[in-house]
Amino acid sequence: MTVPATDWMDDAACAGHRRAPTLWVSPRASDRAQARRICAGCPVREECLQYALDCEGSIAWAWGIYGGLDEYERWDGIRRSRAGWRARRTA
Length: 91
Hints:
The chain has four helices and no strands. It is an all-alpha fold. The protein has one domain. The longest helix is centred in the last third of the chain and has 20 residues, at 71-90. The model has no long low-confidence stretch (mean pLDDT 81).
């Protein structure tokens, strides 16, 4: 697996929250909601989400909020995307 670029991380809204990185990986709904609020205004949200998608199969993929989406939402998006791709391919 190729390591994706991370130069965008310095511009991330969460960069100012380094003292509380557990918000993004906490099982607590209130922590995850706070992380999502921070992600909502992030200027590199798309890059962050792409990073998680590029890391599929790694710990980054397995747990946590990236680009405002949790692991279940990312998996659901990939599953839907793959299903759509298969449907277009067989049409």
